[in-house]
Amino acid sequence: MKTAFSRIMAGKSGLPILLATPLLLHGQSDDPGRFTAKLLQSRYSISVRSGQFSGTGSPVLKSAIAQSRFILVGETHGLAETARFGSAVCKAAGPERFHAMAIEEGPLAAAELERWAREPNGKTQLAEFEKQYPESLNIYGSLEEFEMLQQCAAAAQSGKFQLWGVNQEMLGAGGFMLRRILDTQPSGESARAIRQLLQRNDEATAKALQTGKISDLFMISADDQQLASTAALLQHGGDPRARQLFASLIESHEINRAWPRDAARRFRLMKSLFATDYAELSRSASSPPKVLLKFGAFHIYRGWNPMHASGIGNYIAEFAEAHGAQSLHICVMAVKSSEHRFSGVGRPPGELRTFDLKDDPRSRYLQPLISNLLEPDWTIFDLRPLRQFVNERPGIINSDLTALIFGIDMLVMIPEATPSTPIR
Length: 424
Fold this sequence. Notes:
By secondary structure, this protein is of the alpha/beta class.
């Protein structure tokens, strides 16, 4: 399932788009064979059965999860298997459990998802929200993803569960945010200005539903001057919560209309939101909080990610190191699957389109791994033991595969995945 935002931010498979450079660059004549042999020493089978990890890689993965304060799962969005993997990670945390989970949604949307995950009719409430505010969720409007949130909430430490949205609010969230601001009861001119914006939002939504174009949504098409004048009015006629929500609306508007041209602004926001949430929880927690983070694949890289930027993955890695803790970066990747085309604002998912990394020239850097899968189960490659080997042999593999090995700790490859099921 492709949302409007994930559609414009990713390649056709949702994976980083990399260059088709040679796979193995020859140093000594036997280096390619030695690299493959080293790779196979860190190859294990992994699967999820009855919500639990099994296979030869299960103890390796569980041990790494237990030793890490921060577990980052990077994924191809919109696949049922990535949600199953996330649920199993929550259960694999052991007695320590997770204190919180950070996701690629806005803070306001995440707060609603957290509430729905606790309630018996949460799925119905989510479906109603999707109808009222189309394109307001990035990833979690699917059955599998929502069930994962429910299972992670049930497995959380001492029955507690915090869901952190560390992203901008999505393309259709303007009306939801403006109504929340009105709930704070702003006074005088500021209240009238918010109602005017809400009317413009409703008109923009009606137009987008007619045309199907995301560019017609208020979060993209809002007038900057009107937003600025309303923000000034809220300085006197609104309380701190109203000003905070409106500042988030402006920030989300700026990021959504500029993505991916100005990716750095979004990355800064993600880091800032995480730091604020983690500091607040740390003040009340009896021990350093253990956090699961689940994002698109390129977000979780250590160092420079495939967009040639330092994302939240690198921020978490350095944050953990500065606090004497460990972070674990896991990428879950489907070799073959289908995904729904985005068919327009408020419209049912479009036709399925198949992708296969074996036939994609942009994924040639992955061939040493794809050609050594342990089908029919999933395969997990522990990439950490390969780093010293690659360091000692400069040029043995191409730059894309090198970036993967140093940016990701473990790579889970699914031979064939299935698209997630939209909640309607």
